[in-house]
Amino acid sequence: MAEKKAQTAGTVTVEQTGSAIRRPADQRATLIGLGLNKMHRRRILEDTPSVRGMIAKVRHLVRIIE
Length: 66
Hints:
Blueprint: E1 11-16, H1 25-33, E2 42-46, H2 49-57, E3 62-65
Antiparallel strand pairs: 1-2, 1-3
């Protein structure tokens, strides 16, 4: 089965839940910048203001995993 990775206090896990098809180019570029390009992909990212801003820009396409 899949192993769970320990998440540190300075990280955030993001999963893509919406498709980038028929979205503006800047939203597609933001998803790529977050390391997401296909549905249900997850990434563990540093919890910085710039990453939070990117998540806020595409909040309708991603969800934060607790």
